[in-house]
């Protein structure tokens, strides 16, 4: 079935103060905040019967949005103070025009991940979205040497009844942070990582199971009401630990 994507731009305060309104405008709403700025790109994704139309452009999407950006991020690994400028410049360059396109759903509802990167992604109660993002923004403003690549991606999902789902029994907001690795080069991220993770824990967050985190079993017991129930099921179905690995041992023991 065809899908449609619409892009708009707003100040971060407008989006956070009108979050329910934005959520009602679309089947799949998410937004991208550009750290070290007030800028947000809003994305509405819906099913549609409109014929295919695309705003894709190799020059803007790849020459600028990938090759130039990667080069500037590499330069900023030597001059971290450039990161805020890069975030603001690329928002102005690529995200300040309203865009709309439609195509088959697998082209509209997916995202091409072009960069090598480090990522953290936590699900928090939806009502904590504004509090968490504003605290992260304030921490970056208070510590100018702590830099953050764009974007902070914020998306939403309904609660479910899956025992170890980050959205177990609550409507959730996923707040995803990223630090790129230009040309494979690692950039300092520990302070940003720990600041973000502290905020996520403070507002009742649960980490994405496929992303980086520093949580242990003690953390998960607090985060998941049914964690012990799941552990009992797991031990019954895998009594010898055949399906355990180093990561799962940290989670369950």
Automatic annotation (TrEMBL):
Cited InterPro entries: ALO_C, FAD_lactone_oxidase-like, Vanillyl_alc_oxidase_C-sub2
Domain D-arabinono-1,4-lactone oxidase C-terminal stretches: 10-251
Keywords associated with the record: Membrane, Oxidoreductase, Transmembrane, Transmembrane helix
Biological source species: Ursus americanus
TM regions (residue ranges): 71-95
One GO CC annotation: membrane
Name of the protein this chain belongs to: D-arabinono-1,4-lactone oxidase C-terminal domain-containing protein
GO molecular function, one term: D-arabinono-1,4-lactone oxidase activity
């Amino acid at each position: 079935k065809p899908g449609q994507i619409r892009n708009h731009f707003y100040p971060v305060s407008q989006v956070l103060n009108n979050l329910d309104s934005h959520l009602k405008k679309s089947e799949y709403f998410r937004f991208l905040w550009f750290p070290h700025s007030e800028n947000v790109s809003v994305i509405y994704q819906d099913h549609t019967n409109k014929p295919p139309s695309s705003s894709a452009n190799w020059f803007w999407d790849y020459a600028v949005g990938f090759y130039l950006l990667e080069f500037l991020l590499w330069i900023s690994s030597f001059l971290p103070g450039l990161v805020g400028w890069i975030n603001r410049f690329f928002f102005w360059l690529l995200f300040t025009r309203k865009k709309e396109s439609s195509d088959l759903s697998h082209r509209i509802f997916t995202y091409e991940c072009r960069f090598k990167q480090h990522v953290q992604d936590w699900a928090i109660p939806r009502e904590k979205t504004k509090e968490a993002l504003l605290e992260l923004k304030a921490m970056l403003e208070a510590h100018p040497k702590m830099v953050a690549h764009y974007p902070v991606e914020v998306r939403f999902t309904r609660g479910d009844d899956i025992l170890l789902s980050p959205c177990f029994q609550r409507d959730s907001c996923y707040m995803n942070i990223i630090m790129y690795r230009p040309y494979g080069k690692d950039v300092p991220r520990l302070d940003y990582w720990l600041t973000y993770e502290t905020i996520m824990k403070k507002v009742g967050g649960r980490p994405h199971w496929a992303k980086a985190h520093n949580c242990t079993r003690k953390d998960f017991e607090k985060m998941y009401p049914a964690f012990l129930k799941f552990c009992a099921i797991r031990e019954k179905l895998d009594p010898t630990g055949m399906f355990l690995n180093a990561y799962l041992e940290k989670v369950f023991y």
